[in-house]
Automatic annotation (TrEMBL):
Keywords: Membrane, Transmembrane, Transmembrane helix
Coiled coil ranges: none
One of the record's GO molecular function terms: ABC-type transporter activity
Pfam families from the UniProt entry: ABC2_membrane_2
Positions of transmembrane segments: 16-34, 54-78, 111-132, 152-171, 178-202, 257-276
Protein name: ABC transporter permease subunit
Annotated organism of origin: Cohnella zeiphila
PANTHER family xref list: ABC TRANSPORTER PERMEASE (PTHR43471)
GO cellular component: plasma membrane
Keyword Transmembrane helix set for record: yes
Amino acid sequence: MTMYISATFRELTRKRVFLVTLILTIIFLVLFAFGVRELAGTDGQNQDSPAERLLNSMVLTVLGIFFAQFLAAFFVLFTTMGTVTGEQENGLLLAVAARPIPRWKLYLAKWLGHAVWIAVYSTVLFVSVVWTVHGLAGLPVLAEDMLRGWALFVWMPLLLLTLTMLGSVYLPMLGNGICAALLYGFALFSGLVEGVSAYGGINPAVGKYVLLTGLILPTDSVYRRSLYELLGGADWAGLATSDMGPFSIPSVPSNAFLLYTAGYAIVLLLLGCRAFSRKDL
């Protein structure tokens, strides 16, 4: 298995999109740190009360994690949308599949290889954003809250990876990327709509739409639960997320829904293994 993880890393580093993603990530983190420093008033001129500084730091965290999930999602999309079909088109898949191992094991090995590096990238991104706000804006961070938030933040792109790899068995590389990006966009859009509609009470039709998109692709729901846990759960999260327009979190996914996401990933992996085993190479 270590061989496949190393091979996946070499494959990623050969892609130009990997280098572009790293450069854009560094630019984002630098600009985010600069913006947090300016908005937090770390030059000593900030006369806000401790409560106001706490609220401001939590709002900055919400915005930082929101855009960080964008980077994590598009890292998944651009690096894995051609995992099966792309390798089939250039002949690499036939050479790998010729080895005397079951195809379903090869599929799981590919998933695990990408999952490891996606988790590493998401971890670096998450920790960088949180500790930037902690160091420059004074966000109080508890280890258990950060650990729960980190686990769910990493789980979000892994769900997207599972869907994208399944799509790569059936669809051409570009078609799979467009399909996965649209589904991710629908899930994100539903969360923004729910945040806006919360001011006047959630319309039943909007609630059904949000539930349906969450069941099809639960990435946005997992992101919102991650943010909720990071900001202290029921004790503090409502302070920062109750009045932020589209960034508000009027409802928090339950533990039962998190169990659904685990079953969702398992089912998609099983479907991917089955489809890949039957695929004509």
